[in-house]
Design a protein that fits this description.
The chain has one domain: TIM Barrel (Alpha-Beta Barrel). It has eight helices and eight strands; from the N terminus they run βαβααβαβαββαβααβ. The mean pLDDT is 93. The strands form two sheets. Strands 1, 2, 3, 7 and 8 form a five-stranded parallel β-sheet that branches. The chain has a three-stranded parallel β-sheet with strand order 4-5-6, with no helix packed on it. The structure holds zinc ion.
Length: 239
């Protein structure tokens, strides 16, 4: 592995708690401050994909993300799946959310909820100033082949968030196998103790403080491996 040149993108999807199961806001109220403080403490900048709904409920949260130097990206408005939208609805989720978020920061990156974006909607992103789409998961083997739209680069997520909450003994060998660019993603609600919530096991195990410690250790593991931490807006696809 060319460790010295490994690019790592730390990303977070800023949204209600564990959709489509909870829809509460503990992650924003309790988890986000911890996540932002962790990034500050580790001196890393990340990309935060925010839903329009979240930005309307918690404008101070978006302002805080931008003020700390992180990138603000678009995560749709309602956190409904784009697979259920017609073109008009898809366009309005993108345009409406970008309009809200651009009051705080430039927005050029997008991630669809549930990492589900029908390829036919890519031109809608390009038309509204999105340059990089992170709606695919490299671990989602059943996804259709990635296509491209003029002006929109694709930067796929490397692993599901739950991998980052596995014990280090399992997690670190997994991280060592990832090829760059490495795109990690978490959610603010993972840093709230949801271990007793009525949500699937992979969503709730080791949430709360353990998740925060695990993420800190992951950041340090990549730093020790010589990685450079980038924001999605800084991504340039290979020529
Ligand atoms: Zn999401």
């Amino acid at each position: 592995m060319a460790a010295a040149r490994l690019e790592v993108y730390l990303t977070a999807d800023v949204e209600p708690d564990c959709p489509p199961y909870l829809w509460t806001w503990r992650g924003i109220e309790e988890g986000m401050p911890k996540l932002l403080d962790l990034f500050d403490a580790e001196s890393v900048l990340g990309t935060f994909f925010v839903t329009g709904d979240t930005a309307e409920h918690y404008p101070g949260c978006v302002a805080d993300i931008a003020a700390r130097g992180h990138e603000v990206g678009c995560h749709g408005f309602s956190h409904q799946s784009f697979a259920t939208f017609d073109e008009a609805r898809a366009r309005s989720e993108i345009v409406r959310t970008n309009e809200i978020l651009r009051a705080f920061a430039p927005v050029t990156s997008f991630r669809a909820p549930y990492l589900t974006l029908p390829e036919k909607f890519l031109p809608l992103l390009a038309a509204d100033g999105i340059r990089t789409d992170s709606s695919r998961g490299r671990y989602k083997w059943k996804q259709a082949a990635s296509t491209s739209a003029p002006g929109v680069a694709r930067l796929a997520a490397s692993i599901p968030p739950s991998v980052l909450r596995l014990p280090a003994l399992v997690r670190n060998p997994w991280l060592a196998m990832l090829r760059g660019p490495v795109v990690l993603f978490v959610h603010p609600w993972e840093f709230v103790d949801l271990t007793r919530a009525a949500i699937p096991l992979d969503c709730r195990f080791r949430t709360g403080e353990p998740a925060l410690h695990d993420l800190r250790d992951t950041i340090r593991w990549f730093r020790d491996a010589g990685a450079s931490f980038r924001r999605v807006a800084d991504y340039r696809p290979p020529a």
